[in-house]
Amino acid sequence: xxxxxxxxxxxxxxxxxxxxxxxxxxxxxxxxxxxxxxxxxxxxxxxxxxxxxxxxxxxxxxxxxxxxxxxxxxxxxxxxxxxxxxxxxxxxxxxxxxxxxxxxxxxxxxxxxxxxxxxxxxxxxxxxxxxxxxxxxxxxxxxxxxxxxxxxxxxxxxxxxxxxxxxxxxxxxxxxxxxxxxxxxxxxxxxxxxxxxxxxxxxxxxxxxxxxxxxxxxxxxxxxxxxxxxxxxxxxxxxxxxxxxxxxxxxxxxxxxxxxxxxxxxxxxxxxxxxxxxxxxxxxxxxxxxxxxxxxxxxxxxxxxxxxxxxxxxxxxxxxxxxxxxxxxxxxxxxxxxxxxx
Length: 342
Ligand code: NAD
Ligand code: TYD
Prior knowledge:
Blueprint: E1 2-6, H1 11-23, E2 28-33, E3 53-57, H2 63-72, E4 77-80, H3 87-92, H4 96-115, E5 120-126, H5 150-169, E6 173-178, E7 180-182, H6 191-200, E8 205-208, E9 214-219, H7 220-233, E10 239-242, E11 247-249, H8 250-260, E12 268-271, H9 286-292, H10 300-313, H11 315-323, H12 325-334
Parallel strand pairs: 1-2, 1-4, 2-3, 4-5, 5-6, 6-10, 7-9, 8-12
Antiparallel strand pairs: 9-11
The chain binds nicotinamide-adenine-dinucleotide (NAD) and thymidine-5'-diphosphate (TYD).
Residues 6-7, 9-13, 33-36, 38-39, 59-61, 81-85, 101, 105, 124, 126, 155, 178, 180-181, 187 line the site of nicotinamide-adenine-dinucleotide.
């Protein structure tokens, strides 16, 4: 299968690209990524000589970049990871780039996929489109979309456009919605890698509000496995929730990280809450489990320990990506060239 993966230089996309190339020896991937602050070719350094992986630097919200890549390749499927992905940025820096990439970019990809007869379009979405839960219950695929922050709103908008492309034009679409991911190569702005980085530097760990907001955590490779099975075996037009059923308050995660690093809980600092902060997420992934046989394979404690170890061992990586240095250096360091389609 020949795949267009967008956003494949980011956290989840790079893990997905590596996993697909390892597990499907017949597959080829063209990886279209703009390399924003969150996209980093260092995440793909081990793949630079892999003939089944072609990197193209480009913007999903540019019709020129999108049509160029679709003209140069005949894709069987598109897996759309490309997004502005951080809630706090969408709140504090404004939603403009989120609207551009997450909504306009998705529509341009849908149009190109339809025009070129792509067999399947998989949209990588999030549990945040459902809004917030009360003290009981879980999100199912039937839960109404009630996004509460600009990031979530743009992801919900994209989901609606993907659904509409299936309904109006008969494009074969699948949407996956996953809970909070963690693992190697996550940009140190999201809770887990940020807390690890701060603890290693003996800095204060900023916990929003009372720290009792609940997120449902999943190891990134389990998410990638869920996307892969939905891509290959999911039914056209369906939505699949992906979650590992490990929903706990943020404070518990932060304390666990401190314990793994042998750092004192006195490093925790309660700070002003995020505006409109969703109180609780919990995912019901029974549909994916029942219909496609997916199961999370990485118990939370083992996966968190492995993630903390990875950040300890790869301090140079997160210090560089955080400072933006890699962007100046990636070409000379790794000999990458933007392999743009003609
Ligand atoms: P990320 O921010 O680490 O990576 C996003 C990637 O998209 C980067 O490589 C970036 O360069 C690229 N990108 C951004 N704008 C682009 C544009 N205009 N054109 C081309 N590429 C562009 O994000 P992530 O955490 O890996 O998330 C990937 C996808 O998964 C997103 O769609 C996100 O909504 C979804 N998701 C994330 C989580 C999570 O916990 N991180 C959970 C559920 C769903
Ligand atoms: P985050 O990793 O930003 O993911 P999301 O907002 O998509 O769930 O945040 C996870 C949780 O951690 C969320 O409830 C906000 C909280 N949080 C903090 O308490 N402090 C922080 O510095 C960050 C980044 C997040």
